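> call design_seq(struct)
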């Protein structure tokens, strides 16, 4: 049995990610919605950390993920974002499994 959709304090319908739902009439509006929400940057940052470390992200990764999200939102290029991860001590010490 499905539960009722969540609502915010202003009674807006919220999506699973906590974003306010709004009607979208075409793809350009959907693209703008995603850009304004910050969802793309959050998803990008989280998945890059998962990929780079070869594991699920955890609480210890929150600071790095937030740093990547902020820099991505501010237009930092991909090379610089990848370098942020590669320069981390934990990235340099990943143990390889046989």
């Amino acid at each position: 049995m499905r539960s009722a959709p969540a609502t915010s304090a202003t009674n807006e319908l919220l999506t699973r990610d906590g974003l306010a739902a709004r009607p979208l009439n075409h793809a350009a509006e959907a693209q703008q919605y995603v850009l304004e929400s910050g969802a793309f940057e959050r998803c990008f940052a989280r998945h890059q950390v998962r990929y780079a470390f070869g594991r699920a992200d955890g609480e210890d990764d929150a600071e790095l993920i937030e740093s990547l999200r902020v820099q991505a939102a501010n237009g930092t290029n991909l090379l610089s974002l990848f370098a942020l991860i590669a320069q981390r001590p934990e990235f340099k010490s990943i143990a390889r499994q046989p």
